[in-house]
Design goal:
Layout lengths: L8 E12 L3 E2 L5 E2 L6 E4 L1 H14 L19 H9 L4 H4 L2 H11 L1 H6 E6 L8 E6 L2 E3 L2 E6 L2 E8 L15 E19 L1 H7 L3 H12 L15 E10 L9 H6 L1 E3 L5 E3 L8 E4 L1
Helix pairs in contact: 1-7
């Protein structure tokens, strides 16, 4: 078994969006998310989804999988979990500490981000209610300046429905939204104290680092065409101890990006970051 992470880690990720919808708001007609000040926003949930996808593409076992990117035939999280739980005997299923350790060992996203397992009794499994706190946290990303959102009307002119007279069905009108250009910054940390509880290792931290540096690979879609989302730089700080030489807030404040995507890092004595270009 790999040794758990012993050093606190802080990181900052700077990326750009150009003629893309970084994170649509379903309550706002799928317009790109913005704050009340007009800053572009990408939610932490969206970022974690992208990290999970990259980790999965890199060969890691993931519990919270997308339906269109599953590596098994399980139709839900409960089905996936109960299938795993059925590999344990009845006595083991009732041991919450044992089950927690087993699921952390099985799925990388669980030992990274944590997970709530609250599932009803299955055919061959006991009822389970377990909450796991993960060591990896990431904040929502915000643009450094207010973004301009462009909206265009689109027409679907294909024959989508069969008509009684055999003619082409009526065209369907819709809207498509995009950010013309924006520079976004997000920050995160990895806690060694929580890593000890989930078995998160230094090797796992390196996988997270690789996923962050390539977070938009394989993420192309109509809303985010290839090349429209790009990592500018990942700034990775590894402290010399568990508690950290500085607070995460102080470390995060040293990383700044301007509207052109230029990244500057103010020096902190005894803490030298690794800077990875996208």
């Amino acid at each position: 078994m790999m040794a758990t992470l012993q050093n606190k880690i802080d990181f900052a990720l700077v990326f750009t969006a150009k003629n893309a919808n970084p994170n649509g708001d379903p309550l706002g007609g799928n317009r790109p998310r913005t704050t009340s000040d007009g800053l572009g926003e990408v939610s932490d949930v969206c970022l974690k989804r992208k990290i999970r996808n990259r980790l999965q593409e890199m060969g890691n076992a993931i519990f919270v999988q997308m339906d269109d990117n599953k590596t098994d035939e399980k139709k839900s999280l409960s089905e996936r979990f109960n299938h795993f739980l059925a590999t344990l005997d009845k006595k083991e299923q009732k041991d919450k500490e044992l089950v927690s350790a087993k699921v952390c060992e099985q799925w990388m996203d669980v030992r990274s981000f944590g997970q709530v397992f609250a599932f009803k009794k299955g055919k061959d499994t006991a009822e389970v209610s377990i909450g796991i706190r993960g060591p990896v946290t990431i904040q929502a990303a915000f643009s450094v300046e207010p973004v301009i959102i462009e909206s265009i009307q689109i027409t679907k002119s294909v024959n989508s429905e069969t008509t009684e007279d055999g003619r082409k069905s009526s065209d369907t009108m819709g809207m498509k939204h995009r950010v013309s250009q924006g520079v976004y910054v997000t920050y995160g940390s990895i806690s060694p104290q929580l890593a000890e509880k989930t078995g998160f290792s230094r090797e796992d931290a390196n996988e997270i680092k690789k996923a962050l540096a390539t977070i938009f690979e394989g993420d192309e879609s109509s809303a985010r065409p290839s090349g429209s989302m790009q990592v500018v730089e990942l700034v990775w700080f590894e402290h010399k101890n568990k508690s950290g030489q500085y607070s995460s807030a102080k470390v995060h404040r040293t990383v700044k990006a301007d509207k052109d995507g230029k990244v500057t890092v103010e020096p902190l004595e005894g803490l030298t970051p690794e800077r990875i270009e996208g």
